[in-house]
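Quick board copy: two proteins, each given as sequence then tokens.
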Amino acid sequence: MVGGFPTFRASAPLTQMVGLSPFGLLINLAGTWMGKGFNLVSVPLSPQSRGSNPRAPTFAPKISATREVLVITPLGSPVPNRGFVEDDIFLFGLTYLQVVNDVSTLEARHFETGLWLNIPDTSPPTVARQAVIPHGDSLLARGTVTESDGSPQIPAVSTRPIDISTQQPINDVQFLAPFKALTLPPEIPPGSIDDPNEVLRKVIQSQTISRTTTIDVSASQDDIVNLPFIRNNANVVSLKATFWIESVLLDNGMEFSQLQYSQIVMLRFDGLDWPHISVATLLSQ
């Protein structure tokens, strides 16, 4: 026995040895997920690219319809955390690999590896997400996981930058003109530039969803490590993400699993915090 759990060969599936309960509701993430989404990000423009025009925009918003593959696999053994002021705990979790490409050009949009961890004996149940991104960022996000009947209530999110000194969104029409110049991809519904979560709501508006597992995690600046170049040019200062795992009922009485998520990463430059928002709807394969 190891920490109260049976010993096993490294090649044996852990879920067969200890069951699903040590993974908590996170076990609903396990599997291969594929689907489409939408990505919006504002990037800083260097002085060279702005030229000599003092009124030139200091940023450029970019949008794309995306397609995604997300593979999530349970870890092969419990992870012991040794206690000193507290008793030892054993973590159960899942590894993941996320690959996101532009629908039209197939250009890479995002690549991420990491872990989801179930934290034992917490009420409400708490989880952690560890992520590594090739831009030179890594983070630890923590939060809760809950389960409820019916469809999720997906809130609106704003793409407007926030003034760091006042913590108020920028509403100046002339400053925000580059957003108005954007043209949505044909498969993305109107209104998604102002509120990307409209992409998610559009998918589920005609679906019958019997049950939803909701995972909410967030990371502050203290939880994020960035390369010096990132810190100097477009520092990543926070992350907030919600994942909805939905059981969707078909007219014939069968059902399938659907994963939706909305993620906001704040990039800090030019005295503002700029929302980088990614949303997607993925189906279990």
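And the next:
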Amino acid sequence: MFLSSLFIYIFSFIFVWFGAGLIVSAVDKFSHRLKLSSFAFSFLVLGFLTSIPEIAVGINSLAEDRPEIFVGNLLGGIVVMFLLVIPLLAVLGKGIHLTDHLQGKNLLITLAVIAAPFLIVIDKKITNPEAILLMFFYLVTLYLVESKRGFIEKIEEVVEGFQHIGIFKEISKLLIGVVIVFISSHFIVEKTVYFSEVFSISQFLISLTLLSIGTNVPELSIAIKSVFSGKKQVAFGDYIGSASANILLLGVFSLIHNGEVLTGNRFLIPFLFVILGLGLFYIFSQSKNLLSRKEGFVLLSIYVLFLLYELVRI
């Protein structure tokens, strides 16, 4: 059982890698056909597509009446995104240049919105009004991105573009990539939980750390694929979009739960780590609108400290 699970685990990562390659290629070509920035299209579309594993985990945890799992996974995903995946992209890609979508005041507002869920759950619960507030926060980040390039105004161009055979080709490639990522991510999440049970790790810690890494495998794969293809803005847009999508999903799942979502008492420390990480991210970005390789290493070190702290508390 252990060896077969390990075999499935390894091959699932390989398939996610392949599927992520199809997605990155399709998104880049599709956004160019619509005369959209890769960042804007990735934020709005790819951010949701790579959140499919989080959606699956949320649905399953609701079905089993274990809301603490989707809360830990979605908040853990934000930690992973800003302290592991984005810094990893900066390290591998020799820095990330911020686009005009996220500079100055827009970046500060976006980072504040992304940190807000951690502040909301410090009292160990999410109420229905707070869930609605989280969904509103997502609309704020959507507005900040859409207002720059008018993505929503281009819906007619999208419809017209469907008539072009090239668009159908890229859409097919995109859908194939999504299906591969979805199926592979299902096995990755499943086996991540299995291995954590084998090594006797608590369910909440699984969700906050291991499971959040497992459900962000598509983003990790896209980071590496984007560096090799020289399309880092596709990856960066996806990460901001994915982190924002986590906020929306947290609000939606909390409302579906139909009542207060009670959480564990371990969110204060993750909140402090997130505030530290996002604060440094903002400070670093003010230097030539660039997150350098050295600054990426600094953020990665914070993530390592976060993991060590959580592991010590097992």
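Board note added afterward: The first strand starts at residue 96 and ends at 97.
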